[in-house]
Amino acid sequence: MDPRLSELFPEPADPKFDQTFRDPFNDIFKVVFYPDRIYHAAYLNATRSPRYRYNVSEVRNAFDITVLKAKVYLDGIFLSNVLRIEYRGARLTEVAREKNRFLREQIMMHIRLLDPEIPDNAPEQGPQADLYLHFDKWINAYQTEIWESVSAPPRKYHDFKVLDQIGRMGSITSVFAFKDIIRDLRSLRRLEVSFRENDIDLPFGYFIRDPQWDNNYTRNHQAPVSPKPSDNDKNTIPDNSYLIDFQRGHFFEDVDSLDPVRYLNGMMEPKNPECNGKNIIEMRWVLQREFASSVVFFHKVTIPPGMIEGTHRHVGTEELYCIVEGEGIAYMGEGDDPANAKYPLVDRVIYGLGTAPCRQVPVKPGSVIYTKSGGIHGIRNPSADKPLRFVAFLYHTS
């Protein structure tokens, strides 16, 4: 135990803390697997005072958002469960800058804790709150900690170095509607967050009438609600938030058993001469919002005999196709992969961009098409009787 701690309080700190900090494996794993293996608990809010120690149990990320589950101890005595949210603000910085504003010291967050007992499509999925996030120079991010309780244990008191952070607008806060869930924090599997500018432009003090949001930029996910092809009103579900998923694993015994979402003339404009009323492809959306980091989705696509997915360009995203069944023809932008110069050069109608030259490459099980931002791809199934199937990952570039 750190001798400086014994001067501040008589009770010994839990030895597991010091064992964790001294464990040589942490010096390895915090580099290789950051941040899921180990987190710098010394930088969390209450550690302004050495009387407080944190035990971080789970960490999840989505883009530049980090959410931590932890326990905080005061003088070695358990004090509270903690849900900590950190946000580095890259997207919100950009939209605020378009309004000639800076984010300053505080921003706001809307957070909803999703109750696992309530179905995903229920209108009210769990308690929600609007909170302030405060910029922290230690981590170069905005953050707040939601504690189950901010009351000190019996016969204890908060250190004055920490007390000024505690409050409704503070970086350590408590939300009455969240208490039951945070009390059983281990069972919390999902939450949604979105971020916006502060109501007041600090330090000038004037009211911001059009605060900008980072609510995942009109992101949506696909669901097989309607069998009608391209029934976007039913099959496209708006999100308007980031999902943080603490579930540790997903197993699908057979993704082909998932109901598909059908698309008519996918990635084609009506003026494309290849459009017709029968050109329907199917996508089985395996994982979407569940992904951490910048991954957008993983799905399995079926191109029926004679059908085609329109040729299109990726901007700001990358996508990987891996062919698993059937044979077909893929189209890749001229020059995207210089090794494709040996394949025929053809003109293709590019979704929203007119006509451009592409290389026509043959694909079969085991073929992989990897398209980076600015690249072009599309795929056709020329077979008269066999489907063409591939799996695809899409993710944002950074």
What features would you highlight for this structure?
398 residues, mainly beta, Jelly Rolls, 2 domains, ten-stranded mixed sheet, six-stranded antiparallel sheet, 7 helices, 40% strand
SS summary, helix count: 7
CA-atom Rg in angstroms: 26 Å
Tell me the overall shape.
elongated
Low-confidence segments? 1-13
What is the beta-strand fraction?
Answer: 35-45%
Q: How would you portray this structure in words?
A:
With 398 residues, the chain is mainly beta. The protein folds into 2 domains: 3-214, no CATH class; 249-396, Jelly Rolls. Helix content is 11%, strand content 40%. The chain contains 7 helices and 25 strands. The protein has helices spanning 3-6, 15-22, 24-32, 90-97, 160-163, 179-183, 232-235; strands at 52-62, 65-74, 77-87, 106-114, 128-136, 141-147, 172-173, 190-197, 200-201, 206-207, 213-214, 220-222, 236-238, 242-245, 261-264, 280-287, 295-303, 308-313, 317-325, 328-333, 345-350, 354-363, 368-371, 376-380, 388-396. Strands 1, 2, 3, 4, 5, 6, 7, 8, 11 and 14 form a 10-stranded mixed beta sheet that branches. The protein has a 6-stranded antiparallel beta sheet with strand order 15-16-17-25-19-23, with no helix packed on it. A 5-stranded antiparallel beta sheet has the order 18-24-20-22-21, with no helix packed on it. It is elongated. Residues 1-13 have low confidence and may be disordered.
